[in-house]
Amino acid sequence: MQNIWLVFTLVFVVLACFHFYLALQEIELFNFSGRESLTGFVGIGGDPRKDLIGSDIDQPIKDFIEKFNNYLSKYNKSNFITNVLAAIGYFGAAATALISRDLMKK
Fold first, then answer.
1. CA 73, CA 66: separation in Å to the nearest integer?
2. What are the domain boundaries of the chain?
3. Which residues lie below 8 Å from residue 82, measured CB to CB, with a gap of 6+?
4. What distance separates the 2 farthest-apart alpha carbons in the chain?
5. Which of 20, 65, 87, 103 could serve as 16's disulfide partner, Cβ 3.0–4.6 Å?
6. With the CA atoms of 30, 36, 38 and 40 taken in that order, what torsion angle do they form, in degrees rounded to the nearest 10?
């Protein structure tokens, strides 16, 4: 009957290691390389990156990318904390299983 506690310990240690591995995984931030050229379009002053009212046509996508990358950063941080806490919990469960095994001997 004491061997079942070793099985539980092994399962909990494997799960803890798996969650530590997951904690180290991150989603990469999105990069926008911009436009190489806008063939046939000439904006104000000959600059193809400007539209008729003089604003940067890439600004909306730049704003979106900034907000999206902020979201990804928060998600990565939350994912790290969640998985580290889960791993700590599983290590605690493994320790409890070992202690239970020793208590069963007595």
1. 11
2. 3-27+54-105
3. 23
4. 88
5. 87
6. -160
Asked whether the beta carbons of 29 and 75 are under 8 A apart, the reply is no
Which residues are 50's β-sheet partners? 56
Judged by phi (left if over 0) then psi (alpha if -120 to 50, else beta), residue 66 lies in alpha
Residue with tokens 């193809």: 48
Q: Rg (Cα) of the chain, in Å, rounded?
A: 27
50: three-class secondary structure by DSSP: strand
What is the residue-averaged pLDDT of the chain? 85
* pLDDT for the residue numbered 32: 79
